[in-house]
Structure formats: structure tokens, C-alpha cells
Amino acid sequence: MKLQLLTGFLGLLFLLLGAEGEAQLISTRDPLGVQAQIMLNLDQLEGTWEVRSARKIQAQKGSAPGAQSEHSIPGDMQLSLQLKAIQGKMDFELYPRVRDFVNLFARKKRARTEAMMGLSALYFPELEHELATRRMPKNLKFLPAALSALNDQAIAESGATGLWQMPFQVAIRYGLVCNAAIDERRDWQKSTQAALAYLNHLHAQYKDWTLAVTAFTCGAAGVQRARNRAGENARFEQLYPFLPEYSRDFVPAYMAVAYVMTYHQVLGLEQLPIPEPVRPEWVQVSRALALAPIAKVLHLPEAQLRDLNPVCRNATIAEKGIPQQLCLPAGYSSEFARQKGAIFALQDKRTASTPVLASPETKLPTPKSPAKPVAIKPIPVPVAATIPPNSIAIKYQIQPGDNLGAISTRYAIKLDQLKAWNGLIDDNIRADDFLTIHVPKSQAHRFRNLNGKA
Q1: CA angle 171, 52, 298 (to 5 degrees)
Q2: Residue 320 to residue 317: CA distance in whole angstroms
Q3: How far, CA to CA in Å, does 213 sit from each of 205, 206, 430?
Q4: Are 298 and 440 in a shared domain?
Q5: Which run of H or of E encompasses 439?
Q6: Is 431 exposed, middle or buried (0-12, 13-18, 19+ CB in 10 A)?
Q7: End-to-end CA distance of the chain
Q8: Positions in the chain whose pLDDT score sits under 70
Q9: Within a domain: residue 7?
Q10: Is residue 176 domain-shared with residue 69, that is, in the same domain?
Q11: Which one, of 150, 146, 158, lies nearest residue 214 by Cα?
């Protein structure tokens, strides 16, 4: 009897440990967690050109960030009523974690929130216009504030990028260019067009704006799995326990930031005045040109050039020799044309003085004692995205806990070929996105049963 009890206890213990291990596996897809990711996004605002310029002016005036007196956050009843007052077509309730995020924005990250409010003056007017044109809820303008803190350069650990934190596959699906040289998710105007088209698609699917936002942040498949468990007519608070752990808190964060930015005066928050953005001028560049020599010759801050040309992943214009528009501050296009020869000469000089990387076969000289031997890692050679003959393309929906290595093994393909088919430059993938996989036609039925769709 004692032996049976002991066996049962150990079995239960292993079951609990296994369940805990599974939960940890799922949550480690976003090791930072939503709150930590939002805090990181807010902190990174201090490195943007706009906020740095505003802070300099603020320091010259002798004022300190977040200096205005802090006001108390209303109680639950008042907070709930105020949320209802701004919900519009949404379903703003005092859901789990909403108060936590209000406290984060209004107190813990007070000065950073004021900087984000300052940036809203640059983005919100056009966002409001685009939303009104599409007859979409006006308060959707607050969603990118929750996702990226209105930083068009923000990159999550999952690889989601830009103002709207768009995953690679969604961006490609909605016509954005994303490759090793250019990432149009960082172009806030182009990414806004794509994001609003995607949100409209999700609203058409769910007939509910709160669910559309939930699917935008958690993935449509994640929402469907939650509805399968909580019921097709379940509201967000009923879906919440079944939504992906690593992203479900973006919805209460969105509601919180909408509240804080609407009632900022009640909370004692003051918008950081951001200097008027420079009027841009555009020039065509047909040969690869780094931003650094442009900044040097034209006496411009390189950080400003990066800010004006956010889609350039490697701070280089026309990196692949494909003509591209270079954005310059007003008045500098004529100076660029005049100094073009000097700019390219400086780049060529720097390129000539840059050491050439070793090839994969290169061997380093044997170090003299007592230094330790140096292990040489081969330089990876990109694989062309070749499509095997007699194959068919299927779509695989990424599941929580998936990784590219496991997926490539499951479908008996090479890892670098899988990445080439999907334009991936690293191993970052996100649950609920789709991967294109080419499998033999004769085995298509077997592979479709592994969650593949033609």
C-alpha cells in the first residue's frame, strides 16, 4: 500500500514538473515578457534623434525629465468609468493587468512616457487621418504606443520590427520589402498602411475590434485556440487564460496606454516638446553608399541621417546596387550633388583601408606560447532559394515552442534551405506565422498532416 502511494506521488510529481517545463518552454519564446519589453522600448526612446534633441533643449532650460508633480491613480470604479468613456468601438474594461500597466506608464516610467507622448505629436495626426479614411476606431492610434513606444526602429526579441512590431511574414504578405539590406517595417508610413490593412482583415474575420487587436498581437491562430477552449462567443477576459503567455498582455497594455495618454493631465504627466521635424529632401543614389561618409562631408550628425533613412538595415543606401532614394534635411540636396565626388572618394578610401575578412579556408598563423590556440569558425555561405523539382509548396503554421531546426528535421529539409525559402536572415520565428516549405509531390499528403496546408 505504501509502495503504491509512493509510486502515485512520484507519478504526480513528474506530471507537475513536466507541465511546468512545458509552460516554461512556451514562455521562453519571449524571455523578456510583455512588461519588460515595453520597459525596454520606453528606455530606448532616449537614444532616438528626436528625444535626444528634445532633452538637450530641456537641459538648456534647466528643467528635469518627469519633474511635474505626480498625481494619484484613480480607484477601480473611476478608472473603469474613464476607460469606458474612451472605448469607442472597442471593449475597454478594467481587465487583468490594466492597472499594472497604468502604474508602469504613469509612475515607474514617467519621464519615458512623457517622451512617448511628445512623439505622438509627430505620428498621431496622420494616424488619425488614415483611421478616419478607413472608418476604423480612432483609438487604434494608441496601439503602436503599446507595441513599440512609438519608436519606428524598435526590434523585439521575436524579430517583430517597427512602429507596429510587425512579424516578417505579415509584412511580406502586405507588400513590404524586407531583406538583408532594406526593412520597410521601419518606414512608419508604409508599415502603417500594412498594419491597418491587416487589422481590417482581422476585424472582417472576427466582427469585433477587441478580438482584432488581440489577434494582431497574439496571432489569429492563438485567438482561435483560445476560443476553442473558452467558447466562440467568449470575451477577452474569458480568452485571456488561454492566449499565448508571451503576447497576451499587449492588449491590457494597449488599453492602459490609451488611458494614460488621454488622461495625462489627471495623472500629472506633461508631454515632452519634440522639435519640429526637419523638412526632407530626396536624392537618387544608384551606387552603394554608407551614411557615415555622407555625414562626414556634409557636416551632419550620422544619427540624424539614420533617423531620416530608417529602412536601411546596415546604414547604407542602395546597398545591393539597386537605386534608392536618400533622405536629407532641407537644403542639403544641392550640397550633396556638389560634394558627391568627395563623398564617394572618402568611402572608397575607407573601404581600401578596411581589412579583408578571411575566407572559410583561411588559417590563422599558429600563436606563440603561452597564448591559447584560436578556433576559426567558417564564414557561412548564403544558400540560394532553389526550389526542388517535382515539389509542391505548403504552408506550415508555427506553433509555440517551435524552432527552425526542429521544423527542418520534421520535414526532412536543410535548415539553410528553409531560411532561404522564407527570406530569413536569422533563426527568429514567431508563433502563428507561416513558413513556406517545398516538399515532394508524392509525399504532400503525409506532410500536410504535420500542420501543413497547400
Answers
A1: 85
A2: 9
A3: 12, 10, 17
A4: no
A5: strand 434-440
A6: buried
A7: 55
A8: 1-32, 66-69, 352-385, 401, 425-426, 445-454
A9: no
A10: yes
A11: 146
Q: Which residues are within 8 A (CB) of 294 and not within 5 positions of it... i.e. 6 or more apart? A: 300, 305, 326, 336, 343
Out of 296, 323, 350, a domain closes at: 350
Q: In what order do the strands lie in the sheet with 391-397?
A: 434-440, 391-397, 452-453
Tally of domains in the chain: 3
Q: In the block, which residue shows the cell 529539409?
A: 413
d(CA 185, CA 153): 9
Handedness of CA 367, 371, 373, 378 (dihedral sign): negative
The parent domain of residue 289 ranges over: 280-350
227 vs 235: CA distance, rounded Å? 9
Answer left, alpha or beta for residue 66, where phi above 0 means left and psi between -120 and 50 means alpha: left
- Among the listed residues 190, 192, 194, 214, the one whose alpha carbon sits nearest the alpha carbon of residue 202: 214
User: Which residues partner with 392 through β-bridges?
Assistant: 439
Residue pLDDT, tens place only, 391-420:
888 888 888 767 787 787 778 788 888 888
From CA 82, how far away is CA 93, in angstroms rounded?
A: 10
Q: Residue with C-alpha cell 505548403? A: 394
Instruction: Select from 454, 444, 453, 450 the least CA-distant residue to 408.
Output: 450
Report how many helices (DSSP H) and strands (DSSP E) the chain contains, helices first: 19, 7
> Cα–Cα distances in Å, from 386 out to 3, 172, 395, 417, 447?
60, 19, 17, 8, 20
**What would the pLDDT profile of 134-168 be if each residue is shown by its tens digit?**
999 999 999 999 999 999 999 888 889 999 999 99
Amino acid (one-letter) located at 28: T
Amino acid at 42: L
Distance CA 169, CA 105 (A): 30
